[in-house]
UniProtKB/TrEMBL annotation:
Its EC number is 2.5.1.145. Keywords: Cell membrane, Glycosyltransferase, Lipoprotein, Membrane, Transferase, Transmembrane, Transmembrane helix. It is a multi-pass membrane protein. This is Phosphatidylglycerol--prolipoprotein diacylglyceryl transferase. Pathway: Protein modification; lipoprotein biosynthesis (diacylglyceryl transfer). The chain crosses the membrane at residues 23-41, 53-73, 93-117, 124-142, 185-203, 215-234, 246-264. The gene is lgt. One of its GO terms (molecular function) is phosphatidylglycerol-prolipoprotein diacylglyceryl transferase activity. It comes from the Bacteria. Residues 289-311 are annotated as: Disordered. One of its GO terms (biological process) is lipoprotein biosynthetic process. Belongs to the Lgt family. GO terms for cellular component: plasma membrane. It comes from Galbitalea soli. Residues 302-311 have a biased composition (Polar residues).
Length: 311
């Protein structure tokens, strides 16, 4: 008998049909996370003078490339699950079945955001800093999709919040008795990410980091949490090197990049950003002033008044 545990939702909840369409709950969770991130990031950039709607323009590039990056990172760190004799290679593209790696989405999304920022005159690092806490919110919402898919669980546990996984689940470890409870890694990551949101906002309020330094703090925080979660994950872990799963290596890289970003940008840009717009860009219908996080009583900086450039 199971006591004080977290039940997995019925398998039927993982998807539902509307006419001829099959809607996957995992995809809905990801979509809700994206919408939340767009709203939060736009609000944060608007407070600094960015025009409304510019985040939508940027994510038009970032989201598709982020999805592609997320899927292919997952596939190529789980090669044995997709490439074997008799494998259906179309499964490589079946993102609705789960398997979208955050680190891959960061790589693809970063490239897309860079393209979008260049097209619409937004400083890349200003966008990244505005996005940092929004990313953690989006990741938290997206992790509910793993819950509905009965995935992202860790080692067996007898703790009262152990997760119930049916023994018929393809990811259920061989040799364990039915009724074994597992660490709910999806829940741990949700909690870790939401704590990270509070910490990033506190850092921003106290230290006013700009030029990508807040995004660097995001990389460090997420990398630390993810490295621990991947170390106890059995659902299943990604292919690895030297006995260490690829996602743990990626977490170490994220931490190192976050530290490097903070150090380099602190030396290159000790002051505040003049605005969220690139030098020489005069936006259309933008706010006349921007927040420079100055602690003085001086008037806030205005948007650049040099020769206008248009997208």
């Amino acid at each position: 008998m199971l006591h004080a545990s977290i039940p997995s939702p019925p398998s039927a909840w993982a998807q539902f049909s509307i006419g001829p369409l099959t809607i996957h709950t995992y995809a809905i969770c990801i979509l809700i996370g994206m919408v939340a991130a767009i709203i939060i990031t736009q609000s944060r950039l608007t407070r600094r003078g960015a025009p409304s709607g510019v985040v939508l323009d940027i994510v038009f590039w970032a989201i598709p490339l982020g999805i592609v990056g997320a899927r292919f990172y997952h596939v190529f760190t789980h090669v044995g699950d997709y490439f074997f004799p008799g494998a259906n290679l179309w499964n490589v593209f079946a993102i609705w079945d789960g398997g979208n790696a955050l680190y891959g989405s960061l790589i693809g999304g970063a490239i897309g955001a860079w393209i979008g920022c260049r097209r619409y005159g937004i400083r890349y690092w200003a966008f990244a800093d505005a996005l940092a806490p929004a990313m953690l919110v989006a990741q938290s919402l997206g992790r509910f999709g793993n819950y509905f898919n009965h995935e992202l669980f860790g080692l067996p546990t007898t703790l009262p919040w152990g997760l119930q996984i049916e023994s018929t689940n393809a990811k259920f470890p061989a040799g364990l008795p039915a009724g074994t409870l597992f660490h709910p890694l999806f829940l741990y990551e949700i909690i870790w990410n939401l704590i990270g949101v509070a910490i990033l906002l506190l850092i921003e309020r106290r230290l006013h980091p700009q030029w990508g330094k807040l995004f660097g703090a995001y990389l460090i925080w997420y990398g630390l949490g993810r490295s621990w979660l991947e170390a106890i994950r059995i659902d299943p872990t990604s292919d690895g090197y030297l006995g260490i799963p690829a996602n743990i290596w990626a977490s170490f890289v994220a931490i190192a990049l976050g530290i490097l970003l903070i150090v380099v940008q602190s030396r290159r840009h000790p002051g505040v950003e003049p605005s969220v717009f690139v030098d020489g860009w005069v936006p259309k219908n933008a706010a006349a002033t921007v927040d420079t996080y100055s602690d003085s009583d001086e008037e806030p900086a205005t948007t650049p008044s040099e020769t206008a450039r248009t997208p």
